[in-house]
Design goal:
It contains seven helices and no strands. 68% of the residues lie in helices and 0% in strands. It is globular. It has helices at residues 2-22, 27-34, 37-45, 52-70, 78-92, 108-120, 122-131. The chain is an all-alpha fold and 140 residues long. The longest helix has 21 residues, at 2-22. The protein has one domain. The two termini are 27 Å apart.
């Protein structure tokens, strides 16, 4: 129980750090994220089926960032894009709070960070989902 509470506090501090850094995140962070598709594919295959909605949100966020960069979608605040990019970069980083090589625990911190950011940016993700004529129930 204490480990879970400690991880939740650590995750909350990471999300606060992501929010702070989102203000200064630039084009480079978004470009890095867009070029990391292989890492995403590898990590998402490791997520159990019951976490599929979270992985659908990862895919939705990546598509939103890509559509923003290509000019297809422009109605999202830069701060939201930066937070998504930072959270997704955290997800692909194998040496984060809990290294991904630790079986059973390596992706827990990634899921907590992604979940917190997706929750905070739900309205932006939902707007994009509707813009793309996607079924919100698949993502939320």
């Amino acid at each position: 129980m204490k480990e879970t509470e400690g991880m939740a506090k650590s995750t909350a501090s990471i999300v606060k750090q992501i929010e702070a850094e989102a203000e200064t995140a630039g084009k480079e962070a978004v470009d890095t994220l867009l070029h990391a598709r292989r890492v995403f594919e590898w990590k998402t295959r490791r997520i159990p089926g019951r976490k599929r909605r979270l992985m659908n949100q990862v895919t939705l966020a990546c598509r939103m960032i890509q559509d923003y960069r290509s000019g297809v979608y422009g109605t999202v605040p830069w701060r939201s894009l930066s937070m998504l990019a930072a959270a997704l970069i955290y997800f692909i980083n194998p040496m984060d709070l809990v290294p991904d090589m630790i079986p059973g625990l390596g992706l827990v911190d990634d899921a907590l960070v992604l979940g917190a950011v997706f929750f905070a940016l739900r309205a932006d993700l939902l707007s994009y989902c509707l813009f793309k004529h996607l079924e919100p129930a698949d993502y939320f």
